[in-house]
Amino acid sequence: MAETPRILMCPPEYYGIEYEINPWMNRGVASDPDESRRQWWALHDALTGLGAAVELLDPVRGLPDLVFTANAGLVYRDLFLSSRFRYGERQGETPVFDRWFADHGFAVEHTPDDHHFEGAGDALFCGDALLAGYRFRSDARTMQWVGDRLGVEVLPLELVDPRYYHLDTCFCPLAPDSAIYFPGAFDEYGRSVLRDRIRTLIEVSAEEAFSFSCNAVVVGRSVVLNAGAPKLARSLGRHGYEAVPLSLTEFIKAGGSAKCLTFRLDGEDAASWRSAA
Ligand code: ARG
């Protein structure tokens, strides 16, 4: 039996489009606070309904992207490797995340100075290997440092399309040997690494990737994602998974969706192993 997944989320009380640090964000296109709340709670309730234990981080005024808890850092066993955000706009989130993880029994560590790292947005375990997206937010050298620190194999993947600036916008592990990906977000070398290392790779079309369908939360055999990916839903069905579509359009205005709004406290490595159980 799979254990209960533990997920950290942060309610969108102070969420909004207050700056532009990725191509999706446009200060002229505001998010609707009521609709954001509805969509966020629908995601929360879908995850708890699937058996996840969701813990809540208190929102903080002035940190609109704190809702994207995937970027807190990376958990490995009882270690919390805190993010070092690329942009000043998000750096104020670090002390908030550090305090929460320290208060919840994790050992908190940081990457060296100037080593940018955006946590589980860019670093995702698939089986034993840590797949590591770099360029727009995390640095390639940081990923090597993370691999050495954790004693795990790192597979660096260069992200080549600024719309898919975090690995979790174009890649999602389902199990130790299977994943969803959008080939257009990687270079030829990255695609060949993924093909060599992951037995079942479910390809997402450009159109469906654009609706953030790779940004999915896997709980057991359920894959929670933004609505608008009927082809992916059918492919998932053929592989024994069920797509659970929700409307998360308010968060796409900030360049995030289901996965970005969640952080697996039991470790990203556990996420892919347990779903196979
Ligand atoms: N506005 C946020 C940013 O640009 C969105 C973060 C999305 N998070 C993710 N894990 N992809 O940093």
Automatic annotation (TrEMBL):
Signal peptide: none annotated. Gene3D superfamilies: L-arginine/glycine Amidinotransferase, Chain A. Belongs to the DDAH family. PANTHER family: DIMETHYLARGININASE, DIMETHYLARGININE DIMETHYLAMINOHYDROLASE. GO terms for molecular function: amino acid binding; dimethylargininase activity. GO terms for biological process: arginine metabolic process; citrulline metabolic process; positive regulation of nitric oxide biosynthetic process. It comes from the Bacteria. The keyword Protein transport does not apply. It is an enzyme of class 3 (hydrolase). The active site is at H166, C260. InterPro entries: DDAH-like. Its EC number is 3.5.3.18. Keywords: Hydrolase. This is N(G),N(G)-dimethylarginine dimethylaminohydrolase.
